Amino acid sequence: MHGKKQILFALVVILLTSLACSLPFGNNAPSPEEISATAEAAVSATLTALAPPVLPPAENPTQEPDTQPIPEADPTPIIKTSPDQLRMVIIDSVNNLSSWQEESGLNLLLNTGDVTKAVLSPDGEWIVYTRSATDGVDISLWAIRFDGSDQKLLVSHADFMAMSVNPEVIDVYEIVTISPNMLDFIPGTHTIAFNTYPRFNAPGLLLNNDMWFINLDTAEKRSFLSQGQAGNFYFSPDGTQMALVTPERIDLLNTDGSNRRIGVLTYPFVYTYSEYTYHANPIWSQDSSYLRVSIPPQDPLGDASAPVNIYHLPIDGSPATLLASLVVAPLENAFLAPDLHHYAFKEQLGEPAENLFSLKFSDLSGGTPIEFTTGSLGFGAWAPDSSHFYFINWNPREIFIGQVGAPGVIALDVSTVMNFSWITSDQFVFIYQSGINYQLRMGTLSTPSIEIANLGSGLSNPIYDFVSP
Q1: Strand order in the sheet with 105-110
Q2: What value, to the nearest 5°, has the Cα angle with vertex 342 and ends 323 and 385?
Q3: N- or C-end of the chain: fewer Cβ atoms within 10 A?
Q4: What average pLDDT does range 153-179 have in this prediction?
């Protein structure tokens, strides 16, 4: 025992001597060149879109991430998958929060004038929303029941600022604030998921690639995936899995934290010609048994013959398979329908300066694409039946509804229209703007739209979220 103590004492002396030799003294102040290099490195961290982020390796599809998700102590209770009637949450033109449902209409919940984002739980019982001070710095996350009761703070500004950030951030003192990026409920639960990003006094978006869960029934808040281990997330309809998306790959992970399948699809870093990075948007099948996704070419303004690729992603961890390749207009993509079989795309007509396109439709059986119309236009979104859709005519700005394989279009009866959404394959809602006045309107394929809520006169564009039976 005496010999062990002597060895331990000697090691301690060596360690303390080494540490003392490494301490900084006045003669070791950084040079002007070192200070300049450090400043340049801090600025470059905010311009992350110019280079892909560093991610966990994808060579081994079965490899687990360095930081494992923290499992829940108790299983999340299953709730109703949908409400009994259409429910909406609305942020009006002066940033107040309201709820709306068919039987009772509009109900003002908060008149604080600082609400910036809101989402509804799958059953329509809970609303989670963000509040932001006028300086855009003091950001917090809240919850309130649909009837206006049980309001509670989920994450304070101080809580956000205490969260770990992307390791690419050189100087945390350059961070102005930390804010939630994506907000979404896990289907079938009252658990809200979100990720975050730091904001700087500089352009660009540097995601923390983290993931947080808050159970509104139990008030449990936990870090599910640490920074650098997550990405943009998309839950399966049955709530058991998620896709995690970064600028170069798609992973799959069970929502209980198990069975991470790294790199089921890897793709080249896509140039966006902006300070923002491209993230793929995979779509789950309705039975949660697979996903499909369309990926644009790496350089959308480079080789005009470079194709968009459409992939099938199985959930067993095996690599994705290529289903189709097609050439589309520059900076465009293919738009998969909900059935994940049909898709829409645009082809350029004439010279780019003419801004003319052909809107075409095809399917993954390999048939010949069919032209629907031409003009200065953009594709909007598919209806749930994968047959109806809306598109935008840019000059003048108008919205039209069409159907694949059917002649003619339906023109909306008002203009200017924004935030158009399909409720069903026949029913839709949108925001109508007239000057600084805004309305929420609802229509069907066979009836004119009607005003269902006056959203006031203000400087902000109203937004909404909804859940339906």
Answers
A1: 105-110, 97-101, 87-91, 463-467
A2: 145
A3: N
A4: 90
Dihedral sign for Cα atoms in the order 163, 157, 198, 210: positive
At 170-206, the pLDDT tens digits run 777 789 999 999 999 999 999 999 999 999 887 778 9
Q: What are the residues whose beta carbons fall under 8 Å from the beta carbon of 360, sequence distance 6 or more?
A: 344, 345, 346, 347, 369, 370, 371, 372
The pair of structure tokens assigned to 397 is 């700005």
Question: Is 6's pLDDT higher than 60?
Answer: no
Whether 306 shows a pLDDT value over 70: the answer reads: yes
d(CA 272, CA 186): 30
> Residue 83, Cβ neighbours under 10 Å: how many?
19
Burial of 27 (0-12, 13-18, 19+ CB in 10 A): exposed
Q: Could you tell me the two tokens for 226?
A: 């640490």
pLDDT tens for 364-382 read: 999 899 999 999 999 999 9
Where do the domains of the chain lie, and which CATH numbers do they carry?
A: 329-454 (2.120.10.30)
**Stretch (H or E) spanning 165:** none
